[in-house]
Amino acid sequence: MTAIEDLIRLLKHLPGMGEKSASRLAYHLIRTDSSFNKALGSAIMEIQDRIHPCPICGCYTEDELCSYCSSPDRDNSLLCVVEQPQDVLSISSSGAYNGLFHVLGGAIDPLSGIGPDSLSFPQLMKRIDEGGFKEIIIATNPTEEGDTTALYIRHLLKDREGIAITRLASGLPIGGDLGYADKLTLARSMRGRVRI
Amino acid sequence: MTAIEDLIRLLKHLPGMGEKSASRLAYHLIRTDSSFNKALGSAIMEIQDRIHPCPICGCYTEDELCSYCSSPDRDNSLLCVVEQPQDVLSISSSGAYNGLFHVLGGAIDPLSGIGPDSLSFPQLMKRIDEGGFKEIIIATNPTEEGDTTALYIRHLLKDREGIAITRLASGLPIGGDLGYADKLTLARSMRGRVRI
Predict the structure, then answer these.
(1) Is the ipTM, as predicted for this complex, more than 0.90?
(2) A45 shares contact with chain B (CB less than 8 Å)
(3) Which residues in chain A are closer than 8 Å to B47, comparing Cβ atoms?
(4) Nearest to B47 among A16, A29, A86 (CB)
(5) Taking Cα atoms as reference points, which of A31, A2, A5 lies closest to residue B63?
(6) Do A62 and B23 make contact, defined as CB atoms within 8 angstroms?
(7) What does the domain layout of chain A look like in residue ranges?
(8) Is residue A12 less than 8 Å (CB to CB) from chain B?
């Protein structure tokens, strides 16, 4: 196997990459600036050695604690529960949230063998027990699995007094078009309609 | 900038990769098997050091000459002229050609500043002078630039006796659908219709 075939074979393992796109990408890398390839190659090789999950919230960090858990400027009365570490970045970069995070590591999905035991609920409950949180914002995905997980968290927290439990609003995406919205999204945005 | 942001920034430079897909790919790499990342990273870092253009035909090789130019089993009366090194792999893997190749390094495209001087026409003419080729198959892309390049090669070779000059057939792609074919392709396939 030649060096190019070898590179194409590896690139084909990336998500969404077929034979043609892997080959196009390989030839693109061949023509590209060699310092870029060195930087990209070493970033890929080193990424897993450079980061680890934050022991408190579970999002990725290079330091002992992540930038959210260690920041004195964030509102520590708010806790946003997400499925995956990348969701932390998405929500934090929306600019609409300044509280703390908790990464579950997925959503409850019995068909894929992911039960509550596979997720970081004990750590979540421990944080809530210790934390003095006023609001738990459940930001799991608006999917069946995400909804199940949200209901499960509400069930876990049903006896806690003084903690508001909320869920991200579902509805039409901004800039979207009614004609392209699916029925479920449209139904949710109708049920969740707000007074203007 | 964190290690993840750094990786996303580099991935975003790849063709067809936006902010979202770069971020999704980065988190995929974080979760993936670390030996895969080591293999992919080093393949990307080393690719340009491991290969170089074949001094005869211009396609990429790891050896002194490429596998086509050095093979005793290929028909050295046929020469297929292509634009890019990756076209060699495409044609060779179609299984319909067993001759030699010549890589031009692009197509004539005055609007992008690529004139005949930027391409390997002198090497092509030298090979044809020395080569004893019976047929030159022009396999440039079926685009305006590819057509211009094909006409230019025909012009260069107009005084050569005994060398057939051919061009890859254009027409409907196999498995295609008339309804989805563009007008130009349909017109070409009509003009180039064959008796059955």
Answers:
(1) no
(2) yes
(3) 3-4, 7, 26, 29-30, 37
(4) A29
(5) A2
(6) no
(7) 3-50, 71-175+184-189
(8) no
B167-173: long-range pairs with CB below 8 Å, 24+: B167/B137, B167/B138, B167/B139, B168/B137, B168/B138, B168/B139, B168/B142, B170/B142
How many residues are recorded in chain B?
196
Pick the CATH number of A71-175+184-189 from 3.30.1330.10, 3.40.1360.10, 3.30.450.40, 3.40.50.920: 3.40.1360.10
The alpha-carbon gap from A128 to the nearest alpha carbon of chain B, in Å, equals 27
Q: Is the CB of residue A18 less than 8 Å away from at least one CB of chain B?
A: no
CA B135 to chain centre: 19
Q: Residue B176 and residue B142: Cα distance in Å, rounded?
A: 17
Measure A129 CA to nearest chain B CA, in Å: 30
Chain B neighbors of A85, CB-CB under 8 A = 27, 30
pTM beyond cutoff 0.90 = no
* DSSP secondary structure code for residue B101 in this structure: E
Does domain A3-50 fall under CATH 3.30.390.50? My reply is no
User: What is the per-residue pLDDT across A32-80, written as a single tens digit (0 to 9) for each?
Assistant: 999 999 999 999 999 999 999 999 999 999 999 999 999 999 999 999 9
